């Protein structure tokens, strides 16, 4: 029994179309039945598993099937997304062919090596993101900006709460008066004690 071949073709903008991708896959020697060509227009910023057309593709696939795409960026928004997408196919025992990588099967030994490189790039991207976030937080602190949520109570309100608690005003009454939770009132007390 020969493998069923599916084409996944995506473009980002409504004025674009996926016909060139379908033609490229056919010209590469893949026989495509129309009902096995998944075409969608969706931003590359949306992860593959959150795309409607891609979800439809995943529902149709069975072990032994083949998914063909023209480029890796059709499969995911970044290296991390491509990696998780290919891992999902591998778990389903579905082969993934990328034409831009010389028709490499990303689930084969050579493909796994390619995915290893992609995984390293994904880790590098993640580390860069962490570094940029950390640098931004450090800069914001150096500029005197307050990080995190805006406090729900001012210093004057906290002082007033402490006085009222000493006068045995209940947590519930104070929470209602200041529009906060009872635990927020308790945190004010805990910080003072």
Task: Give a description of the structure.
This protein is of the alpha/beta class. The chain has helices at residues 19-27, 52-60, 79-91, 109-142, 155-166, 171-178, 182-192, and strands at residues 5-11, 37-41, 66-69, 95-98, 104-105. A 5-stranded mixed beta sheet has the order 2-1-3-4-5, sandwiched between helices. Helix 3 (79-91) runs antiparallel to helix 4 and helix 6 (171-178) crosses helix 7. The model has no long low-confidence stretch (mean pLDDT 88).
The helix/strand order is EHEHEHEEHHHH
Distance between the termini: 75 Å
Helix/strand structural class: alpha/beta
Helix content: 40-55%
Mean pLDDT score: 88
Strand content: 5-15%
Number of domains: 2
Shape descriptor: elongated
Return the CATH architecture of the largest domain: 3-Layer(aba) Sandwich
CATH topology of the largest domain: Rossmann fold
Number of helices: 7
Largest sheet: 5 strands, mixed
Which class of the largest domain in CATH terms?
A: Alpha Beta
Give the low-confidence spans.
none
Neighbour order of strands in the largest sheet:
2-1-3-4-5
Radius of gyration: 27 Å
Topology, number of strands: 5
For CATH, the homologous superfamily of the largest domain is named as: Resolvase, N-terminal catalytic domain
Task: Give a brief outline of the structure.
This protein has 7 helices and 5 strands.
Supply the key terms:
193 residues; alpha/beta; Rossmann fold; 2 domains; five-stranded mixed beta sheet; 7 helices
């Amino acid at each position: 029994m020969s493998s069923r071949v599916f084409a996944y073709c995506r473009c980002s903008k409504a004025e674009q179309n996926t016909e060139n991708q379908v033609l490229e896959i056919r010209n590469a020697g893949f026989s495509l039945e129309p009902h096995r060509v998944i075409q969608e227009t969706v931003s590359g910023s949306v992860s593959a598993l959150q795309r409607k057309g891609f979800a439809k593709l995943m529902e149709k696939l069975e072990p032994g099937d083949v998914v063909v795409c023209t480029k890796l960026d059709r499969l995911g928004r970044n290296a991390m997304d491509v990696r998780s997408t290919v891992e999902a196919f591998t778990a389903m025992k579905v082969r993934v062919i990328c034409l831009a990588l010389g028709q490499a099967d990303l689930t084969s030994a050579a493909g796994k090596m390619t995915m290893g490189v992609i995984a390293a790039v994904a880790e590098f991207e993640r580390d860069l993101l962490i570094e940029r976030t950390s640098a931004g937080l450090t800069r914001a602190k150096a500029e005197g900006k307050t990080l995190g949520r805006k406090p729900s109570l001012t210093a004057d309100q906290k002082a007033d709460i402490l006085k009222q608690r000493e006068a045995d005003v209940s947590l519930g009454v104070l929470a209602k008066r200041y529009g906060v939770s009872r635990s927020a009132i308790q945190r004010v007390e805990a910080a003072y004690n």
